[in-house]
Amino acid sequence: MRDHLGRPLVAVTGIGAVTSLGFGVAESWSRLLAGQSGIRRITRFPTDHLKTTIAGCVDLPEDRAGEPLTSPVRVERMAAVAIEEALAEAAIGSKGSFPGPLFLGMPPVEVEWPPRFDLTRQAGAPTYAAMTGAARNRKDIYETFLFGGVGERLSARFGTRGAPISLTTACATGASAIQLGVEAIQRGECEACIALGADGSVHAEALIRFSLLSALSTRNDTPEKASRPFEKARDGFVMAEGAAALVLEDYDAARARGATIIGLVSGCGERADNFHRTRSNPDGRAILGAMKNALADAGLEPGEVSYVNAHGTGTPENDKMENFGMRAIFGENAPPISSNKSMIGHTLSAAGALEAVFSLLAIRDQRLPPTINYDEPDPSITLDVVPNVARDASVRHVLSNSFGFGGQNVCLVLSGEPA
Amino acid sequence: MNRKQVVITGIGLVSALGEGPDAHWDALSAGASPVVDETSFAPWSVHPLPALSLDKQIPKKGDQRQMEPWQRLGTYAAGLAIDDAGARDLVADMHLIVAAGGGERDFALDEQVNAELAHANDPAQAGARLNELLSTGLRPTLFLAQLSNLLAGNISIVHGVTGSSRTFMGEEAAAADAVRIAHARLAEGRGEIALVGGALTAQRWDVLLLYRAGGGVWDGPHKPLSDRLASGGGMIFGGMSGFLVLETEEHAQARGARVLARLDAVATDASHRAAPGDSAAAARALLSRVAPEGVDAVISGATGTAAAWAEEEAFLREVKAPFRRPANLIGHGVEGAFTAHVALAALALSRGGFYAPMDPADAGEAPSPDRILVTGFGQWRGEALAVLSRPSSSRKAENA
């Protein structure tokens, strides 16, 4: 089957997820539908002197008190869990052999404090020159913190084909990874691929960096109430960790092998902003462009969208702009929109992929996850945000928004299997 | 699918040899000496960047202040490429793919933290103090200068490139895949014009520290790339940036753009290098896709690391074409290398000539090549090939 532009349809045949609500799609999704929050006090490192001491942490069995895993190791573990789950559902390839490439959305990584302290002790001096001298043949440090390290290890473990592509478009990363996979199938480069978003950046330096940009909620006393997208008292996003993997396949090939089709990625749209490093142009041009491009790519009119899975970070700025974009695209008849981030926080590089997964589940179950913590409406936000309680709905096409720092905006359209 | 021919209409090139096409052509066609700083980071050497007239490409001081040297370099070279292509009025719908590392850390703060906390015994106390030192010591906007995707973000802000924006990570391979994807998207009709490139600032300790941990950095004053092999090989990093404006041929013709070269094919792989010969075999398989009938000359992405060198030597013996290794003169540029080397290939094709030997072991002469192969053998992973041809060349391009 071909789409309205003559391209192969792209099916999703396997999904996997890790969030602060649980390991696995079933647990994360059921708790999302129940309106539960995964945000809690950070316990794996000291939080003294931090403005924000809460996050959507995914603590791993290997985390030891005072010695948590570093970010790239965390990303790799969560990514592997999500891929395992997606592959088991898709039932494609064989153990250690997947018949297509890997598109890995992940955060930038760098040598962290534990290895720097280690090298300083070994060198007997705290300078970079001394650490560099002591670093000779520390393959453990090199392979852990290379940008290509996580992708290489996942590629080797799951036996994906060709060069794995690791990418970042800030908060749109997961959606960009899916878009790259969709394009690869559409151009006939492969019949199947794994698209993935993963993030494990909750450590002190990252929290401080975002705090210095005044981006984070400081509602530390009530963690589960801190993420308040679209609500009047929202005061920033809550950092979180997680991963989602999707097995994407040429629809005909998937049907031919008898795979279960979870849904389709029927459109992708992107538009970069050139206004500011952390804010959208007030004219909304880039956000609108990404949303319009996604709908056009899917061959849909705005009225055919049943539900929008919001970027909905809970920063005053984002939610105002998203409301503006929604009204500009959909006018008076905007479909319901809800933010998963109200429950699992902002999973950064994983968000676009996790939200694509939850969009597909909304279609599968004909049920919209809520926006929790919606206590007092913001008069300037007029949308139906599915406040606090999940509800049944007829869901055929979902628009999933991802808007990144640095002006990188990506929207996806997820759809049910063609009748 | 009816694939479109893709051409290169602009290059933005900065290296230790200078900036722009003329500086590189003049130096490299006549035969240049390496430009090296052997003292600032001794015992390690680096190929330093030339002084850049930043105001010419990043006119607002406020924009310059929001960046550190890495983002400034890439944003600067991206502007050179846009100017070289005469494409300033096409940026709104120009697509962008950047191959990125990370931005500079605050080295003085890191050393201060190390001095105070590396030997701490109480993890809880040390963690609390780390939070305090970073909260008070980090400059608020430094994060934006460190974020990998903010090189692309700055290119959008400074030059107005807003078609789309993607940032690939993963050392040498990221740049090759950036060129591959940009080429494939244009060839299949997703847009008409794209900007692709990468940058490395080598005069920074965090880069040296990470890569030295892999064992592949040359310890000592500069020695020719090929001479380092006897002592185990090693990379000397070079500050560089290469940006390319890619365009469909019909779009370039319709606007009367000067075409530097055709970008015929780009292919990449990532063998796991489990055994000697794996990497060469991967490259060999790529060659049969991108240039089954051979090439006239090669620009090699040799980094200086011994294992990758041996693989590439085995591969080049079969290509049987004259080859040049820029890393001897300008150093290894990691994310900036592949696009800089593609820019050098496009430059040679546009000038109708080739370069003098760059390393003492560079062999063969190619007075007027029609077809140039650019190789990439990553220091750890990644095999990549790009084939460019002279725009006037009548040879039919293969599709990879």
Produce a short descriptive summary.
Chain A is built from 13 helices and 15 strands. With 419 residues, chain A is an alpha/beta fold.
At CATH's second level, what is the architecture of chain A?
3-Layer(aba) Sandwich
Instruction: Please identify the oligomeric state.
Output: heterodimer
Number of domain units of chain B: 1
Biggest beta sheet attributes of chain B:
11 strands, mixed
Write down the overall mean pLDDT of chain B: 96
CATH class of chain A: Alpha Beta
Tally of DSSP β-strands of chain B: 13
Tally of individual domains of chain A: 1
CATH arch. level architecture of chain B: 3-Layer(aba) Sandwich
Alpha plus pi helix count of chain B: 16
Identify the overall geometry of chain B.
globular
Distance between the termini of chain A: 12 Å
| Shape, principal axes of CA atoms of chain A | globular
Coarse structural class of chain B: alpha/beta
Query: Which structural class should the secondary elements of chain A be placed in?
Result: alpha/beta
Largest sheet of chain A: 11 strands, mixed
Written description of the protein model:
The complex is a heterodimer of chains A (419) and B (400). Chain A is an alpha/beta fold and 419 residues long. Chain A has a single domain (10-109, 147-415), classed as Thiolase/Chalcone synthase (Peroxisomal Thiolase, Chain A, domain 1, 3-Layer(aba) Sandwich), CATH 3.40.47.10. Chain A contains 13 helices and 15 strands. In chain A, the strands form 3 sheets. In chain A, strands 1, 2, 5, 6, 7, 8, 9, 10, 11, 14 and 15 form an 11-stranded mixed beta sheet that branches. Chain A has a two-stranded antiparallel sheet with strand order 3-4. Chain A has a two-stranded antiparallel ribbon with strand order 12-13. In chain A, helix 2 (71-90) packs parallel to helix 6 and helix 10 crosses helix 11. Chain A is globular. The termini of chain A are close together. Chain B is an alpha/beta fold. Chain B has a single domain, classed as Peroxisomal Thiolase, Chain A, domain 1 (3-Layer(aba) Sandwich), CATH 3.40.47. In chain B, the strands form 2 sheets. In chain B, strands 1, 2, 4, 5, 6, 8, 9, 10, 11, 12 and 13 form an 11-stranded mixed beta sheet that branches. Chain B has a two-stranded parallel sheet with strand order 3-7. In chain B, a hairpin with a 2-residue loop joins strand 1 (6-15) and strand 2 (18-19). The longest helix of chain B is centred in the middle third of the chain and has 17 residues, at 171-187. Chain B is globular, with a radius of gyration of 21 Å. The model of chain B is unreliable at 394-400 (pLDDT under 50). Strand 6 (165-168) of chain A pairs antiparallel with strand 5 (164-169) of chain B, so a sheet runs across the interface.
